[in-house]
Write a structure and sequence with these properties.
By secondary structure, this protein is an alpha+beta fold. It has a single domain, classed as Alpha-D-Glucose-1,6-Bisphosphate, Chain A, domain 4 (2-Layer Sandwich). 26% of the residues lie in helices and 47% in strands. A five-stranded antiparallel β-sheet has the order 1-2-3-4-5. Strand 4 and strand 5 form a beta hairpin.
Length: 97
């Protein structure tokens, strides 16, 4: 898979592989991004997973991330990256509800 985009005016390209795809309940992929500041090698690929689960209040989105190997990358992911991704997902869901 290949994702290209821009976050806060900074372009990025993500290179990865889909590891699980079970619509509509699970999507998991392993990837490397040119904005992570790391070498493009298997050890530096992150894994991101999304799962939908029924709950008493409706639907619960479970997001998992793994193989974040530095404090700087952890802060990047848990700052602007997740803000961007979850914001885009919210917009999509609200527009298609």
């Amino acid at each position: 898979m290949l994702y290209r985009g821009e976050v806060n005016g900074v372009p990025f390209t993500d290179f990865g592989v889909i590891e699980a795809l079970s619509p509509p309940s699970e999507y998991r992929y392993r990837y490397w991004s040119d904005n992570h500041g790391t070498e493009r090698c298997p050890e530096n690929h992150l894994t991101i997973g999304y799962r939908l689960r029924a709950s008493a209040e409706g639907t619960l989105l479970v997001v998992e991330q793994s193989n974040i190997r530095s404090t700087e990358l952890y802060e990047l992911m848990n700052g602007q990256v997740w803000e961007f991704l979850l914001g885009a997902l919210k917009e999509y869901v609200e527009a298609n509800a």
